[in-house]
Amino acid sequence: MTLGLDPIDEARRHWVDHGWLDAADGMALVTSITRVQQLFTNRIERILRPMGLTFARYEVLMLLHFSGTGALPLGKIGERLQVQAGSVTNAIDRLEADGLVERRPHDTDGRATLAVITPVGRARALAATDVLNELVFVPLSTSSVDTRDAFGVLRSMRVDAGDFVPTAT
What's the domain count of the chain? Predict the structure, then answer.
């Protein structure tokens, strides 16, 4: 459904009318980011669903694909994806049931379990990446200056919030 007005801009106007001018732009920014996240998530989920993936499971597959050995401890997956252990377990359970990932004992740490991407998992991840690149990521990159600027602003906000500590490059 396409609206005839921007409800976030309208909310911003109400913030100003109620005397919250100093908070109006921040509210509009946070609400806009949240809405854009919903739009991206819905689009990506629709694209990945026919491949039997969710974005969370796709992220796990790509993380394993990019790792040097195709295997990572479950704890490291949670750390890198910035999600709770239960979310990792859920994703790995489903990926394993679909034959895209296998669990194996860690070679040197008896307490840890590794998730290992299978050849089928690697092929599915790469096929999903091709489609996401074509339908989502490349179109966003066509206005590369705006995209890089937006990424830079959001990255700075994440650093300010303590999401991660940037390393010198």
Answer: 2
